[in-house]
Amino acid sequence: MVQMEWYLVLSTFMMFAGIYGFFTRRNLLTMLISIELILNSVDINFAVFNRFLFPEQLEGVFFTIFAIGVSAAETAVAIAIIINIYRNMKNIQVRNLDKIKEE
């Protein structure tokens, strides 16, 4: 059986990779992927703590399923916004978003 610490190390690595990707990338799509990586690390924590602390209950699994649903809705809205920005500007770089105010 895999120990709890290994799951937490994986989750921490995913969290910091997502934070690093969000702050260093200038493309809206890669920033969205970084946010999804952060949310997936939280989902891993929900499932792991449920498995090790309350193995006979399913609260952590339900939180994980709810978080995946919220994440899917957030991704759909974000991709719709990114597509709209691309149609108007032909570019999805963050540094060009201030030009939207001028139009």
Features:
103 residues; Helix Hairpins; mainly alpha; 80% helix; 4 helices; elongated
Quick rundown:
The protein has 103 residues and is mainly alpha-helical. The protein has four helices and no strands. α1 packs antiparallel against α2 (28-53) and α2 runs antiparallel to α3.
Radius of gyration using CA atoms only? 17 Å
Q: What's the helix count? A: 4
Number of strands: 0
Helix content: over 70%
CATH architecture: Orthogonal Bundle
The H-and-E topology, N to C, reads as HHHH
Q: What share of the residues does DSSP label as strand, in percent?
A: under 5%
Arithmetic mean of pLDDT: 90
In whole angstroms, how far apart are the ends? Answer: 58 Å
The largest pleated sheet is described as:
none
Instruction: Count structural domains.
Output: 1
Looking at the structure, the CATH topology is Helix Hairpins
Overall, the morphology is: elongated
CATH C-level name: Mainly Alpha
Structural class: mainly alpha
Low-confidence stretches: none
Task: Describe the protein in words.
The chain has 103 residues and is mainly α. The protein has a single domain (4-102), classed as Orthogonal Bundle (Helix Hairpins), CATH 1.10.287.3510. It has helices at residues 4-24, 28-53, 59-89, 99-102. The N and C termini lie far apart (58 Å).
